Amino acid sequence: MKGSCFGEISQWVKQMHESSRSAAKVSSGERRYAGCRKDLVGGLCIETACWGLVRKERKKKRKWHSLIDKVWNWKNLNEAWEKVKQNRGAGGIDDVSIEEFERNLEQNLNEIQRLLRQDRYVPKPVKRVYIPKPDGKQRPLGIPTIRDRVVQQALKNVIEPIFEAEFRDSSFGYRPGKSAKQAIEQIETVRDEGHEWVVDADIKAFFDTVNHEKLIDAVAERISDGRVLRLIRAFLEADVMEEGQGRAKNVIGTPQGGVISPLLAKIYLHYFDKRMAELGYEVVRYADDFLVLCGSEEEAEEAISHVKEILEELELTLHPQKTKIKNFSEGVDFLGFTVYVSHKVPRKDAIKKYKEAVRRATRRNLPINLEMVIQRLNPIVIGWGNYFKIANVNWQYKGLDGWTRMRLRAFKEKRKSYNSNRRILNAFLKNLGLKSLSSLLNPAW
User: Fold this and answer.
1) 401 and 279 in one domain?
2) Residue 151 is assigned to a structural domain of this protein
3) Pair (317, 242) in one structural domain
4) Which residues form a coiled coil (predicted)?
């Protein structure tokens, strides 16, 4: 099916824009809700109309039926593919790359659509890889095949607006229109209202301990399409392939690395957000990391008890060593920042990671010239600098800029001593295109 948008959304927008002459045509098979995106109906973006319709239906506490045809809708599959292509990433256990998948794109999407329509789609096992964590341990990731990523993205396109309309404002992680910056700003707002005590909480192995049945039940509260529920379950229960370990069943948890995993995590923890709000607590959560802001140390101690009780209902546990009660006077770490009573700064380990990245980009034995080094370095400077520029960083940025220029002088001279490399002027580095952290605070610099 190669339609674009859906009847109810079109009618809803028409009612809001009766004077418009540009109502879009719709296919009779595409009703109610859709993964429709950027077409214009009545002068309003269909994506906006879609979200508006979901908000309208939210008041009715409606369950959504017959969604699978929106998942395999041709336009939705193409948009899902474009998103997967944009995000890049290595292939899964079949070793099919983005480029290989694209060479037979129409055939691949047709096959996906056929299997979904026939309710015969079976995900392939995920590829288990490990990445280092800050504490020196390894974080397991489950890498789906490109084909499975496309299906997960198509599924996400359809069901995410339904649940986004339900999620509380206290949840900031991996949400459209939400950001880490907003989470930090919310912490400061609540702190300034007198909540100076914090439960700094950490859920132990959250993604590895999500209960499949409880998660499916949470999804089923809003979605009654059995084929969609079976598809979600199939992704949750997809086997895991690990080099040297063979194939293993996945009976618990949602593998990090899947397109749909962050959304499923948000759905699972929505119950926690709701219960904490009912108890009157101020919570700021980003994925599985959260703070509970309290007016006193006693309230914080009581909050920990409530947090434990609610998480136990979800078969989750707090990490005993990583969950602490803190006061903003000693600094509270969250999302790479340390937040104090009156200001915030990048965490020490965030600065350490930045320096490590700069060191890797400016190694003296790299077989490239200085201009190419600067081209490699600039994305690091811009990305890190833009993230932390909301903090009180003037003096830190100046110091790090000076340290970076020192690294570049050492690279140019191929010497270990920095003091003897003053012949390269700062202006010369700037002329080569070097970006500075300070310039992100003051573009005129």
Assistant:
1) no
2) yes
3) no
4) none
For residue 32, the model assigns a pLDDT of: 31
- Strand, helix or coil at 45? strand
Write the CATH number for 275: 3.30.70.270
Structural domain of 50: 7-62
Task: Summarize pLDDT for 297-311 with one digit per residue, the tens.
Answer: 999 999 999 999 999
Q: Tell me the residue type at 209.
A: T
Residue 107 shares a structural domain with residue 226 = yes
What pLDDT score does 56 carry? 55
Same domain membership, residue 241 and residue 113? yes
- How far apart, in Å, are the Cα atoms of 339 and each of 283, 347, 440? 15, 9, 21
Are 309 and 190 part of one and the same domain?
yes
Residue 298: CB atoms within 10 A of its CB come to: 10
What is the reported pLDDT for 428?
Answer: 84
Q: For residue range 183-207, list pLDDT tens digits in order.
A: 999 999 999 999 999 999 989 999 9
| Structure tokens belonging to residue 48 | 């906006």
Is residue 332 within 8 Å of residue 324, measured between CB atoms? no
- Based on the number of CB atoms within 10 Å of its own CB, is 413 exposed (0-12), middle (13-18) or buried (19 or more)? middle
Q: Is residue 410 part of a domain?
A: yes
Span of 329-343, 373-387, 388-402, 424-438 with lowest mean pLDDT: 424-438
Strand partners, 4: none
Residue indicated by tokens 């618990």:
252
- Higher per-residue confidence, 182 vs 48: 182
Confirm if 56 and 12 have CB atoms less than 8 A apart.
yes
Largest interatomic CA distance in the chain: 75
pTM of the model: 0.82
Q: Tokens 């010497």 identify what position?
A: 415
Q: Say if CB 140 and CB 244 are below 8 A apart.
A: no
Torsion angle of alpha carbons 396, 402, 405, 406, nearest 10°?
-120
Q: Which two tokens stand for residue 217?
A: 């039940």
- Residue 136 reports pLDDT greater than 90: no
The distance in angstroms from the start CA to the end CA of the chain is 54
Contact between residue 23 and residue 43 where contact means Cβ atoms under 8 Å apart? no
